[in-house]
């Protein structure tokens, strides 16, 4: 998979790097990313997302709401699912602690 830096994306789009960084920071839900910090790269398909954002802002001086709506219709959000810890009942917790106490008595 080909990855690009912000500078490379800016060059492909003919935009200043600072503008592309602004788009990246304000529309993170739509822009795919690989890595973190200085190792952060975007897959080549991110260029299309940046282009849609730029076009929407240029068109009639699009508002941030328009920019949110347009990629929302065209691209999936980068959702991260975090599993919640299983819920335990008070009875399960008491049983667990009783078992621990019993094991400690056997030692």
From TrEMBL:
A single MF term (Gene Ontology): DNA binding
Superkingdom classification of source: Bacteria
InterPro entries: DNA-bd_dom_put_sf (IPR009061), MerR-type_HTH_dom (IPR000551)
Stretches assigned to the HTH merR-type domain: 5-55
Gene Ontology process terms (BP): regulation of DNA-templated transcription
Protein name, as recorded: Helix-turn-helix domain-containing protein
Organism of provenance: Sulfobacillus harzensis
């Amino acid at each position: 998979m080909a990855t690009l830096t912000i500078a490379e994306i800016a060059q492909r789009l003919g935009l200043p790097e600072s503008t592309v960084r602004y788009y990246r920071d304000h529309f993170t839900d739509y822009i795919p990313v690989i890595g973190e910090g200085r190792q952060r790269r975007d897959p080549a398909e991110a260029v299309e997302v940046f282009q849609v954002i730029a076009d929407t802002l240029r068109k009639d001086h699009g508002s941030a709401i328009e920019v949110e709506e347009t990629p929302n219709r065209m691209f999936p959000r980068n959702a991260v699912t975090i599993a919640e810890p299983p819920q335990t009942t008070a009875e399960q917790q008491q049983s667990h602690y009783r078992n621990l106490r019993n094991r400690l008595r056997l030692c």
